[in-house]
């Protein structure tokens, strides 16, 4: 008969045999490994199984100690999403088609405000500035009511060949720094505009931010030049198909110019003036979602990089 070790090493499996004399396992419990006689036989299972041991026959002194039992690896049922997880998904879904808040209707804004209020009432981190490790990392802006950002969000309509790819905030709680970044993409290259700031904790929820410098990043070349077939300008759609040959002919020249620009170092400029300060109040925080409010009650909803909430 094959040894227990060899049976276990044929993982994954449905049933495993072991001697009732050498094991007293008669209950189910979550496991990451199975140990017999001190030997670690199965380590770091990729699936979250439970070990269930069943001893056949009657219990008592009359039981044959050599009788075999059955150990079953049982996959637990899928975990049901919690109420907070459902509310977060509903909030993120309500952002669809709003262009980070720019195009949100009054009804959609009211719905978003209601969902935010409900989430804030269930905030698992009531003192965010006392849990700075949760604030660490890169956060992607999903929605804002801050009108100061609206001209930036509408830049695609003003510059048809340039798109706003991402607005993000990166927090380093060890060095008390905040980096706000706006990433643009054009037909030949992408570039980022960044502000570097320092922050100070002022209360369990509030931080004071002092902007120090701005940086216009070095453009990063894209692989090829892409022109839209049509653009909209002053409410009129303009067909660019007749100009495609002409536009293609300038690709090499434009690419040469872009390469020259991309060899330049980033452009830095100072932001040290009397208006270079702001404050931010965090009203909801977990490892995936952050809701903050700034000057004038503006709302910012940000999602942690890598979170499944970023997946449509």
UniProtKB/TrEMBL annotation:
Subcellular location: Plastid
Pfam families recorded: PAP_fibrillin
Domain annotation Plastid lipid-associated protein/fibrillin conserved: ranges: 86-302
Transmembrane stretches, start-end: none
Broad class of where this protein is predominantly found: plastid
Keywords annotated in UniProt: Plastid, Transit peptide
Domain of life (superkingdom): Eukaryota
Species the sequence originates in: Fraxinus pennsylvanica
Taxonomic placement: Eukaryota, Viridiplantae, Streptophyta, Embryophyta, Tracheophyta
GO cellular component terms given for this protein: plastid
Protein name, as recorded: Plastid lipid-associated protein/fibrillin conserved domain-containing protein
């Amino acid at each position: 008969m094959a040894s227990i070790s060899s049976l276990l090493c044929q993982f994954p499996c449905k049933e495993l045999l072991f001697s009732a004399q050498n094991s007293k396992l008669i209950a189910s419990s979550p496991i990451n490994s199975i140990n017999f006689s001190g030997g670690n036989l199965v380590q770091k299972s990729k699936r979250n199984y439970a070990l269930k041991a069943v001893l056949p026959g009657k219990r008592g002194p009359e039981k044959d100690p050599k009788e075999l039992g059955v150990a079953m690896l049982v996959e637990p049922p899928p975990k049901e999403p919690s109420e907070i997880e459902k509310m977060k998904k509903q909030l993120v879904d309500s952002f669809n088609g709003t262009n980070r808040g720019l195009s949100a209707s009054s009804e959609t804004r009211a719905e978003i405000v209601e969902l935010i209020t409900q989430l804030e009432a269930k905030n698992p981190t009531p003192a965010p500035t006392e849990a700075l490790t949760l604030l660490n990392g890169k956060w992607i802006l999903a929605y804002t009511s801050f009108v100061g950002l609206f001209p930036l969000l509408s830049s695609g309509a003003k510059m048809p060949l340039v798109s706003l790819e991402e607005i993000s905030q990166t927090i380093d709680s060890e060095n008390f720094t905040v980096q706000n970044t706006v990433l643009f993409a054009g037909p030949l290259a992408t570039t980022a505009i960044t502000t570097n700031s320092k922050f100070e904790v002022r209360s369990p929820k509030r931080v004071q931010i002092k902007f120090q410098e701005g940086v216009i990043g070095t453009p990063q070349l894209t692989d090829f030049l892409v022109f839209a077939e049509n653009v909209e300008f002053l409410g009129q759609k303009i067909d660019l198909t007749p100009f495609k040959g002409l536009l293609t002919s300038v690709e090499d020249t434009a690419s040469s110019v872009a390469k020259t620009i991309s060899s330049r170092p980033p452009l830095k400029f100072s932001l040290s003036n009397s208006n270079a300060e702001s404050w931010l109040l965090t009203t909801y925080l977990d490892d995936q979602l952050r809701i903050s409010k700034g000057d004038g009650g503006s709302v910012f909803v940000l999602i942690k990089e890598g979170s499944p909430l970023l997946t449509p």
